[in-house]
DNA sequence: TTACTTATTTGTAATAATTACAATATCATA
DNA sequence: TATGATATTGTAATTATTACAAATAAGTAA
């Protein structure tokens, strides 16, 4: 249920957010790489293509896109913010060994919130941490258990 | 279902974590102030009592206590880490206006995780953002709606 | 107690992510 | 093409966290 690139352009136009070259490149990057990238990753990769791109512009673009509701900001670790084009509610699992962030579907409404009746909820986040299957296998092959991860 | 101070001391001794004066002060602070404080808050408040306390020690103590399983690290915003003595699973609601973080109970196991069957889950987090009842009222009294928050 | 060993604390410096801001470039429209 | 508004850049500032070595405190056994 991912939005098409054209739909996103329309959304941006509706909200009077200019479709500047760099913004579209950032958007395109997110659309191509569903890996919840960091600013660093986006900047490093795009910089190869667009040598004049600055990191500030990546930040600016992501904030503009987030305000427009096209991009979701994911905070799992306090030392890195990650960005996601998928704005439909879903959970995130971060592997503590390889760092990859996986999506998983959740029925967010099953989380009872009767205690929050008088709160206005604007955003819901669910994230898990642990070890992914690939890393579990590697860990089994070696004996890294001893060192904790 | 909060742990008693004595129980926590026993846990620390079991794990061979020394009950140093400063660590106990940090622990005591968390026990008295269930406000999910930042390092800054802990440091500022304790520093009045213990003028020789350094911020590094607050970080060290919190990490030691977290490793011992007595303290939970909460990452909601990427620019501030918060700490919680309550390690039983529960959700957090952060008010985007006043910044207060509220607890709420969740039945974490209701979140279906069949997609994560082959993952080893070590930690689950649920947090919401929005506006708390107090702020909603204040906002209604004024007309801050216009400015978005 | 004392001497010795080990862990903690301190203070400062380094790191790293993000933001602020002013100058410059680009875009949209007339 | 000219004009005004917005986007982008580059740099500097800010801020949270970590690294590290020296000083201090705590723990232990004689
Ligand atoms: Mn995602
Ligand atoms: Mn809590
Ligand atoms: Zn992994
Ligand atoms: Zn509030």
Q: CATH homologous superfamily name of the largest domain in chain A?
A: Winged helix-like DNA-binding domain superfamily/Winged helix DNA-binding domain
Query: Considering DSSP H and I runs of 4 or more, what fraction of the residues of chain A is helical?
Result: 25-40%
Number of domains of chain A: 2
Straight-line N-to-C gap of chain A: 35 Å
Instruction: List the chains of the largest interface with their residue counts.
Output: A-B, 38 and 39 residues
CATH domain class of the largest domain in chain A: Mainly Alpha
Detailed description of the structure:
2 copies of one chain form a homodimer. The first copy, chain A, has 149 residues and is an alpha+beta fold. Chain A folds into 2 domains: 87 residues, Arc Repressor Mutant, subunit A, CATH 1.10.10.10; 61 residues, Ferric-uptake regulator, C-terminal dimerisarion domain (Dna Ligase, domain 1). In chain A, the strands form 2 sheets. Chain A has a 3-stranded mixed beta sheet with strand order 4-3-5. A two-stranded antiparallel sheet of chain A has the order 1-2. In chain A, α2 packs across α4. The longest helix of chain A has 13 residues. The first copy, chain A, is globular. The two termini of chain A are 35 Å apart. The mean pLDDT of chain A is 89. Chains A and B meet through β1, β3 and β5 of A and β1, β3 and β5 of B. The structure holds manganese (II) ion (2 copies) and zinc ion (2 copies). One manganese (II) ion binds next to loops of chain B. The structure holds a DNA duplex (30 and 30 nucleotides).
């Amino acid at each position: 249920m991912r939005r098409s690139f054209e739909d996103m352009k329309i959304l941006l136009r509706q909200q009077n957010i200019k479709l500047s070259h760099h913004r579209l490149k950032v958007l395109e990057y997110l659309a191509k790489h569903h890996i919840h990238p960091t600013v660093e990753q986006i900047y490093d990769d795009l910089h190869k293509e667009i040598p004049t791109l600055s990191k500030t512009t990546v930040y600016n673009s992501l904030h503009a896109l987030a305000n427009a509701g096209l991009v979701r900001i994911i905070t799992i670790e306090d030392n890195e913010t990650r960005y996601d084009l998928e704005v439909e509610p879903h959970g995130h699992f971060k592997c503590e060994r390889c760092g990859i962030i996986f999506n998983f579907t959740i029925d967010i409404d099953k989380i009872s919130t009767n205690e929050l009746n008088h709160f206005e909820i604007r955003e819901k986040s669910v994230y898990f941490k642990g070890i992914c299957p690939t890393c579990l296998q590697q860990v089994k092959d070696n004996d890294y258990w001893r060192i904790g991860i």
